[in-house]
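Protein Record: Sequence and Backbone Structure Tokens
======================================================
Tokens: labelled as protein backbone structure tokens, with as many entries as the chain has residues.
Question of interest: how does this chain fold, as expressed in backbone structure tokens?

___
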Amino acid sequence: MNNRDDIVRAVVGTQRPRADRVADIFLSDYHPFTQIDTARLRLTPRHYAYLRISEGCDQKCTFCTIPSIRGRMHCKPPAMVEAEARELVADGAVEIILIGQDTTSYGLGEDAIEGGLASLLRRLNKIDGLKWIRLMYVYPSVLSDEMLDAIAECDHVCNYIDIPLQHISDRVLKSMHRRIDRSATERLLRRIRDRIPGVSVRTTLIAGFPGETQEEFQELMDFIRAFGFDALGVFPYSREPDTPAGRMADQIPDATKRRRVDALMSAQQEVAFSMARERIADRFDVLVDQTLESGSVIARHQGQAPQVDGVTIVEACDASPGDFVGVRCIKSKDYDLIATPTQTSLPVVNR
């Protein structure tokens, strides 16, 4: 829990080792703050980076161990977030992906920050050289209209919402302690699409939560087909020790969980493939991630987050990672789009 300054002492120890000594257990003081991440070694390509705006979580979902591991939610001050963002941009990042266990609660609770997430997005939107700001891990019950308006109004904030819903059955949501029901979820999803034109909505779901009936699973299947998520991931419920859900009766057999995951992903596949075909003939900008020996590049539009979503393959494209290219979609291939360049942007100056 933010004890990075104590890592060496925890590994090396403070006393000379003796052959007859058993392993030490190191417990440092709890640090009730989120440390700055400047001057860090990045494992991502130079042109995009993840920026952690908070640590810990106050939601206490019954299936999750994060509160017991990471502690209460603590937010970085806006000035600290901006400083980190500016450093990343100076190092070549043109896309910054904001992360936290619950990004929408930024500035709420103990670390009250005036304006919260909406204010932070507007602040980051003014940074020169930062072209895309992407928001991940949105908690549904605290996603406000003010936040949606900030996403829609800020020209550098991607029209993209990653909102892990986990389920849609009222009983299962209550058992998960998600603080939202089906009716409120559906109203929220309608507001997202109404307030952010052209938004891409991604979600994640849990299949086989304790006590999930066949009828509740079918309700989830029908919901996927009806809403039409741009991207979706499904995880089998994992029984974590010392969690309320881990102590629940009616644990679902692993084989059943796997079948339900496969069924949900098959349903989403039909939706995603259809939505990809609907993009044919569309024109949009993409950010190049990788060049191929064939002369094509692997890129992403605003609705495609790195590593988790589909990609856009741009044929016969003379561009480098970090470049933005205007393209026209000519066909789709499963989750991915195939496009040709219409115009290549100049390389970003600070790359």
